[in-house]
């Protein structure tokens, strides 16, 4: 399911080797801090760093006996350095290493997602500006409402994506929290300096207070942010899916040479990538629910969160990485049909200009209620007769008591609805 371009980045980040590399760095930095405190020989950290290694296969063998993954990792490290191994993991508990290294991995994943979001934003910006003045019909309840421009439609998504970039940046800070406070978080067997030193070197913030773990509201906030970004991508994908419907066809996904839309119907061009994004957004919302469930743990810690996190955190970050790359490509290659947009604007034969007529009549002195009833009556007559709305107005002798032919004509000007487009674009930074 995941394309090759994702694997060297997010895939490597969550690989077993990289996870062990980060865990090892937590152990090594802890040794350095202990040496600075005079708890272990000053030369020990340098010698350990020079000699230490890990072997994933050997770790798995040890874990079969210990039934404890972190202890198997530590024992493998200790075996690789001989007598110096007694200084590794001194005063630490498993979660000191696991939670601090996890914070590094999540911060790294956030950096990738932030980069993805910036690319997506640039594609949205380019497309919005390209179609800034392209008229299309605005819809409410799926029904034709009033004219907008396709650029304005995309500007809404651009502004939301900017908020999502800010959310990802905040989420990165929220998740960049480590802890080296020992069993149940009291620092009884490890000096608080070790936590400050390790977190500083890893560009993490030390937890203000922890139990045996970093509290899982941090992780829940991070994953719910990913789910919210996914929901925004689904929103855009759903819009494109609607616009690609045969009876609408104002825009569609690019259809590659040799691509097939259906095994049975050769004519089909389906919005499959947007549908894929919609499905993945559902997964992200499911992961967010699990992250919220992980907030509540027994007393100072249990491990009911651990098994779930090993699934949801790599999956959620990898999914959103894929979704953002996919959305960027969809937006870059999106096929847009301005001629169909103009055709659809005319589908109601001018009824979409009813509010302009309503307000013009009010300006001429009619009460709002009287003007509304008059315009609605003429609108429904045009709809029932299948007649052009403007023609229906001109055939109604009473309308000329209030409006001239030119004033009626002015009510049907599409450009009137585009007069604040520049101002709106500036408000959202386009």
Topology, element by element:
Elements: H1 7-13, H2 16-36, H3 44-51, H4 56-66, H5 69-81, H6 94-130, E1 135-140, E2 143-149, H7 150-175, E3 177-178, H8 192-201, E4 205-206, H9 217-243, E5 251-252, H10 272-293, H11 304-333, E6 335-336, H12 338-345, H13 354-363, H14 368-385, H15 389-395, H16 405-410, H17 421-427
Parallel strand pairs: 3-4
Antiparallel strand pairs: 1-2, 5-6
Description:
The chain has 430 residues and is mainly α. The chain has 17 helices and six strands. It has helices at residues 7-13, 16-36, 44-51, 56-66, 69-81, 94-130, 150-175, 192-201, 217-243, 272-293, 304-333, 338-345, 354-363, 368-385, 389-395, 405-410, 421-427; strands at 135-140, 143-149, 177-178, 205-206, 251-252, 335-336. A two-stranded antiparallel ribbon has the order 1-2. The protein has a two-stranded parallel sheet with strand order 3-4. The longest helix has 37 residues, at 94-130. Residues 1-7 have low confidence and may be disordered.
Spell out the key features of this protein.
430 residues, mainly alpha, two-stranded parallel ribbon, 6 strands, disordered N terminus
Q: For the record, give the distance between the C-alpha atoms at the N and C termini, rounded to a whole number.
A: 34 Å
Per DSSP, the total helix count is: 17
Major β-sheet profile: 2 strands, antiparallel
| Fraction in beta strands | under 5%
Could you tell me the number of beta strands? 6
SS-based structural class?
mainly alpha
| H and E string | HHHHHHEEHEHEHEHHEHHHHHH
The overall pLDDT, averaged over residues, is 94
The order of strands across the largest sheet is 1-2
Helix content estimate: 55-70%
What coarse outline follows from CA principal-axis ratios? elongated
What is the radius of gyration? Answer: 30 Å
Query: Would you identify the regions where 5 or more consecutive residues have pLDDT less than 50?
Result: 1-7
């Amino acid at each position: 399911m995941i394309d090759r371009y994702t694997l060297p980045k997010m895939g490597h980040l969550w690989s077993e080797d990289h996870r062990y590399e980060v865990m090892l760095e937590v152990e090594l930095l802890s040794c350095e801090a202990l040496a600075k405190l005079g708890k272990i020989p000053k030369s020990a950290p340098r010698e350990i760093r020079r000699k230490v290694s890990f072997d994933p296969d050997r770790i798995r063998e040890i874990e079969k006996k210990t039934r404890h993954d972190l202890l198997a990792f530590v024992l493998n490290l200790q075996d690789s350095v001989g007598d110096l191994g007694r200084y590794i993991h001194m005063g630490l508990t498993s979660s000191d290493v696991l939670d601090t290294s996890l914070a590094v991995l999540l911060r790294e994943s956030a950096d990738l997602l932030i980069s993805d979001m910036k690319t997506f934003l640039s594609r949205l910006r380019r497309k919005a500006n390209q179609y800034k003045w392209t008229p299309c019909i605005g819809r409410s309840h799926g029904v034709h409402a009033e004219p907008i421009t396709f650029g304005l439609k995309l500007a809404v998504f651009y502004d939301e994506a900017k908020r999502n970039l800010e959310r990802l940046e905040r989420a990165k800070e929220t998740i960049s929290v480590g802890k080296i406070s020992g069993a149940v978080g009291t620092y009884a067997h490890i000096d608080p300096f070790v936590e400050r030193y390790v977190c500083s070197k890893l560009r993490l913030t030390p937890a203000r207070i922890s139990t045996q773990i970093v509290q899982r509201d941090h992780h829940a906030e991070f994953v719910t942010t990913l789910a919210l970004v996914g929901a925004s991508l689904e929103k855009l994908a759903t819009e494109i899916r609607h616009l690609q419907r045969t009876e609408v066809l104002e825009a569609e996904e690019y259809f590659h040479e040799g691509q097939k839309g259906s095994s049975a119907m050769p004519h089909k061009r389906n919005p499959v990538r947007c549908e894929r994004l919609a499905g993945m957004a559902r997964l992200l919302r499911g992961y967010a629910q699990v992250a919220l469930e992980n907030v509540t743990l027994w007393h100072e810690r249990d491990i009911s969160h651990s098994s779930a996190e090993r699934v949801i955190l790599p999956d959620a970050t990898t999914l959103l990485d894929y979704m953002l790359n996919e959305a960027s490509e969809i937006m870059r290659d999106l096929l847009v049909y301005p001629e169909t947009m103009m055709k659809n604007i005319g589908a109601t034969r001018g009824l979409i200009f009813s509010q302009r007529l309503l307000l013009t009549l009010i300006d001429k002195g009619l009460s709002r209620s009287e003007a509304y009833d008059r315009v609605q009556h003429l609108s429904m007559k045009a709809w029932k007769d299948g007649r052009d709305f403007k023609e229906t107005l001109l055939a109604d002798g009473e309308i000329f008591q209030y409006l001239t032919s030119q004033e009626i004509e002015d009510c049907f000007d599409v450009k009137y609805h585009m007069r604040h487009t520049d101002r709106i674009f500036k408000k959202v930074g386009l």
